[in-house]
Structure formats: C-alpha cells, structure tokens
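User: Can you predict the 3D structure for this chain?
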Amino acid sequence: MPEKITVLKDKILIICWTSLSELIIDPHKAWERLKRLSGGRKTPVFKATVFSIILAGLLNFIGTSLVRTEIDFIEGVKSGITVMFTLFISVYISSFINLITLENQTKKNVSLSETFNFTALLYSLSFLIYALEPILSIVFFYKAFLLYTFYIAWIGTECFMEIQTEHRAVFTSVCGISVLLTPIVINKILTLLMPGLI
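Assistant: Here is the predicted structure, written as structure tokens:
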C-alpha cells in the first residue's frame, strides 16, 4: 500500500513539474490542470520549484562555462550558484509581497502556502530565461520575454486563484512586477555582500 502511495506522489510531482513548463506554452490549460490536482492547493509545488531552480543553475553553469573563448568552469560555478541563490530567495520574497497585496485587497486571511504555490509557478518563465541566460545574452533584449509573465499571472488569477474580477488587475500587476524585479534586486544585493561570487 505505501508503495502505491509513493508512486502516486511521484506521478503528481512529475505532472506538476511538466505543468511548470506548460505554463509558458499554454497557461490556461496548465493552470486548469494544476487546479484539478488536489484542488490546486496541495500539489508538490515546492519540490518541483527546487528541482527547477537546481536545473536552472546547472544549465546556467554549463552555458557560462562553454560560451567563453576558453572553457571557464570557475565562472560557470559562480554564475550557477548565483542563479540558484537569486531564484530561491526571490520566490520567497515575491510570495510574501503577493500575500500582503492579496490580503490588503480582499481583506481576508490568505494562506501563505497557497500564495507560495501560485508565485512559484509564476516563476516558470524566469527559470527558463535564467537557465539559458549565457546563450540568450547575445540578444540584448532577451529579458523582455519575461513580460509574458504578466499574461501567465492574469490567466492564473482566474483559473488557479479564483480572484474576483475587480481585484485581478492590481494583483496581476503586483505579481508580475515582483517576479520581474525581485531577482534583479537580490542579484544586486548578492553582488554587494559577496563581490567575489559574481
């Protein structure tokens, strides 16, 4: 019996992680699927998020090491670690910002785990962009693709969070801005605190 439960949990984790990727391609379908999984609130988003952050750091490490004229693993390690730290801290800070915003708007107590799940899933595009940053950096406007996060958030507020129409615009804007700007701020702070790392 426990073996069956473990298999089921692993299957849900895989579905959750693939939904992170699908949020970029078809947000509406992905949000609806995530909503159906255990009511959309108990999906193993934390594990999927950690896996995505580690993968983003590894891909960034490989990309940074290989895009230079000479292979430089030291720079790759520095860049990969910075990406992992930046994304992990940013997800939590953004979650708190979004939680406070939603509580102020709705005047209701909101679950932090619910807001964390939504925010972590919103970072799906950021995980991809930061993972491929060494390659994408040859195109100077590559971070403009992150603006698509606003659309993912807009669909998610309806399908996943079920926020009332009058609150969706403000909450979507705050979510999008927090997801876009928090990693930049965290990266700057890490630069000041650990200049040798970056």
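The radius of gyration is 17 Å. Confidence is low (pLDDT under 50) at residues 1-8.
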